[in-house]
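Milestone M4 deliverable, item 7.
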Amino acid sequence: MNSIFHRGCTAGVLAIVLLSLALAGSGCVDIRGEDGGSDTMPPSSPTDTETEEPISSTPTTTKEQTSLVKENEFVRSGTAFNNEISERLEIHRTKFVESRAFRNNTVELTVELYNNTDEYADGSLRASAMDVTQAVATLVHGRTTSNESLAFENGSDGLLHQPKNVFVRIQGIDGRSVGRFEVNPSLARAYMDHRFGTDAFADHVVGTFHLDRKVPRGNHSPEWYLNLSQLRNWGLIYIDEVQRSSNPDESGYHKAIPTSGVSPHPGDFRIHHEIKDWKVGEMGQYATSAEATIYGAYWRTTQKSSAMPPERVSVYVHVIEKNDLKSYMKRKHVYDLLSAPKINQTTLTNYQLSRQTKFVEDDE
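Output delivered:
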């Protein structure tokens, strides 16, 4: 059940177009169906926007020199952006192949479909597209700025520039081209800020598909795959937090809380943590000890992870010879705690009391 974490628009066309125009800033966003798409990929041969072209040695004016400095800054920032995308894709099953950065603040990525057919890794086009989309969205939200002057001030070692366009080429495991799509960074930022719905954002990305051949598209909605990628990313840190918090060497537990029962539920964007055979005295005096540790991990993981946190974390503890415990905590209460002016015993107590808990019979 835990293997998913191992390392290894329906909102309407008009709403999307209006928001795209408001956010993109640099022009309209082309929205097409899955079989269409905007053929706006950077040219495959070197042009005056590509990194391959050497800078001219001809004397230039101050204005031209300023332009070259700006273009080179975009290349440096784009290269750093691509390197981070490569690292972030390592936790997913979609393989990063190569990338390019352009002087017009555009980047191009090439990825490869993974060859897997289990429940959470069906090897489909939508699954890989949403893995890349998740990586781009979290990076745009956490490491870039749309304030161009601020990015230039900090350089590539500080905040990176938000790319103007992110183009993605997809190839099969045979190395042959499958097609391409686009991720709009401004819409990605709006999605991560909860200003643009997950379904609308995922559908928009799928709407830019331009396919060269037929491949499995996936049995789930684009939103489902995007949620799965977010939960996989967030869940890795959550598992580490639970294990660290219940480490017998540093806590009151005699045995670490098991995390093999942690599973993603992309349909309602939830993480479920099920613990079997809880024995009083072995893993804490009461089952509520595990519950408190899990919700502490929910809060701390949300602080640390760049991925969007789940809408809720639900818990089911099977207690030996006692009533089972069933509970959940909503993301809203995590955000309430994170936005508190001061984290103290009062705010932590209020956070813990916001959970929904009940004891249930074993056979329920």
